Amino acid sequence: xxxxxxxxxxxxxxxxxxxxxxxxxxxxxxxxxxxxxxxxxxxxxxxxxxxxxxxxxxxxxxxxxxxxxxxxxxxxxxxxxxxxxxxxxxxxxxxxxxxxxxxxxxxxxxxxxxxxxxxxxxxxxxxxxxxxxxxxxxxxxxxxxxxxxxxxxx
Length: 154
Known about the structure:
Elements: H1 4-30, H2 35-61, H3 72-87, H4 92-114, H5 120-153
Helix pairs in contact: 1-2, 1-3, 1-4, 2-5, 3-4, 4-5
């Protein structure tokens, strides 16, 4: 079993990645015109925010100090979305591509965490949140494919 400091470090890594996702979804909502997508992105942002709070509570229960901010890479990724959409005039497919790329990072982080030897109660949360990250990724990919197909018709 991983020691307590390793478990806290793993959870803090997930907190940073999840905060990236929370902020990334919010940024994506700001960079699309379609009201359905805005609602989708904002809902995902709120759900990921709830996951962040759950992870922070777990870190506290283990006697640690939870990460309070997103990663530098996540901030750079969101700025890239802003720049890219500025040049492509709120291109929905571009936003969805970048959102999917961000979800790829989250999936990898959760998969890596799920491979670790974690206490049962921590593993339960990590695996449940991994399933949520997979769902988010797949929904974004489906939306991207649908908007890409629609753009090809027009």
